[in-house]
Amino acid sequence: MEKAKVGLRAAGAAPDLWRHTLSQIPSQFGRLVYLSSLRDANTGQYRHHGLAAVFGEEEANRAMQLSHEEAFATWLEWGLEQQKEDLELYVAGLEPERKKVVETWSRLEPYRNLAPAGCEGVEKALFLDDLETLLSLMRNELGVVSPDPGA
Q1: DSSP state for residue 46 in the 8-state scheme
Q2: Rounded distance, CA 26 to CA 43, Å?
Q3: What is the pTM for the complete model shown?
Q4: Contact at 8 Å (CB) between 89 and 26?
Q5: Are 74 and 25 in contact (CB under 8 A)?
Q6: Which residues pair with 39 in a beta bridge?
């Protein structure tokens, strides 16, 4: 058992996180949602019991933070068409029907907390602008009324 742990440590927390978790999430947006859900809103630290048990809290936190930043950067590199395809793949995997998700996101804006803590203001603004554009397109496609009567 101890020998296996040493082998895992040699591979590193980030490759382990990718191999065992992130590679199982079919959409980049889903990875953003997952990684941001591991971040403690009060401390900004990432928490993953299994990863921390094998690699230690500091290395696990660093691996999740770097993975979050990479997933975010990849999303920003994509054009709106690719982002829309990826977002629709993510939404298709959720339990509620697509229209309900778009209605709820338009009202509650949960995507506002998906950016990594260290992202620049311009990057975060671009991310939010892109998501709001995509939600607007999806609202139009699904016949969802905008939560903002002036929109």
Answers
A1: B
A2: 29
A3: 0.86
A4: yes
A5: no
A6: 46
The whole-angstrom separation of Cα 73 and Cα 70 is 5
Range 58-61 contact pairs with CB under 8 angstroms and sequence separation of 24 or more = 59/12, 59/13, 60/13
Residue 129 CB-density burial (10 A; 0-12 exposed, 13-18 middle, 19+ buried)? exposed
Domain positions in the chain are: 2-142
In terms of C-beta density within 10 A (0-12 exposed, 13-18 middle, 19 or more buried), how is residue 42 classed?
A: exposed
Tens of pLDDT, residue by residue, the chain (151 residues): 344 443 344 468 999 999 999 999 999 999 999 999 999 999 999 999 999 999 999 999 999 999 999 999 999 999 999 999 999 999 999 988 899 999 999 999 999 999 998 888 899 999 999 999 999 999 999 998 876 655 4
